[in-house]
Amino acid sequence: MAEELSAQTVRDWGERYSNWGRWGEDDQLGTLNFITRARVLAACSIPTTGRVISCALPFHPPPVGSGPGGEGLSIPLPCATQWDALARVSYDGKMYNGRDVAGLSLNDASEDRFDQGRGGVIGRGVLLDLPRFTRRPWLENGTRIRPVDLDACAEAFGVTVEPGDTVLVRTGMMTRCREQQSWAGYFGGPAPGLSTLCARWIYEREIAAIATDTWGIEVRPYETPDCSQPLHLIAVRNMGLLVGEVFDLDTLAEACTEDRRYEFLFTAASLPTSGSASAPLNPLAIK
Questions:
Q1: Domain containing residue 129: CATH number
Q2: What is the C-alpha to C-alpha distance for residues 167 and 121, in angstroms, rounded to an integer?
Q3: pTM for this entry
Q4: Can you list the alpha helix ranges (DSSP code H) found in the chain?
């Protein structure tokens, strides 16, 4: 690797690409602020066929259990297609927008809930299909997806990434699991994914949300030997980026290939969840 990335890189880029205070001191939406009403209305004009495609992996929760007070349903996450809450990532005792981690109680329904997707992520979606672009069935584990790769893929398929977009990046990892009839290593093992170098690309394009068909979005093994999840630390903690994981993009990829249109109306509202830093959902692409 030509670039020397480290924990110090994460700190430096975290400051450089920070959105703290951009939408006020109390903001908890982060980059979802880029999805304005005007952009929602514009996205509603994209569909031409009315075809609706789910991007969710079937959700198989564990047996019903009780919560801390003996009531409700307790489900460990991540275990399905989901958004990460901004409260999920922190360092130096701070999470997005400078909020203190100390004393945080996610079970307090009055604050720090999973509100990032509660109102509904609705807007323009874009698919960047890296395996189809590179003419391979899937990307191999450890493949670093760099900004130049994202730009070249978008150009090849005639789509532009615009402010307020939700960008779906297909690596083909789910395709490989199905082909090999094994999910061994999918959850937490080596994987293709976004390079930490994509932090600037995401920030400058004012992307609202980004998701992939992998367990953790970024390339594994991580590019930083002295810290884990470097892109998460920069993007979630400092940018306030909404991150989606375990998205099933295979059917959508086939549909985009058929009609040669890689943009669509996208919606993905999560359950209004307290006591959790993730929320399962059923993302829909309308073409």
A1: 3.50.30.50
A2: 12
A3: 0.90
A4: 7-16, 37-43, 130-134, 147-156, 173-180, 198-204, 230-232, 250-259
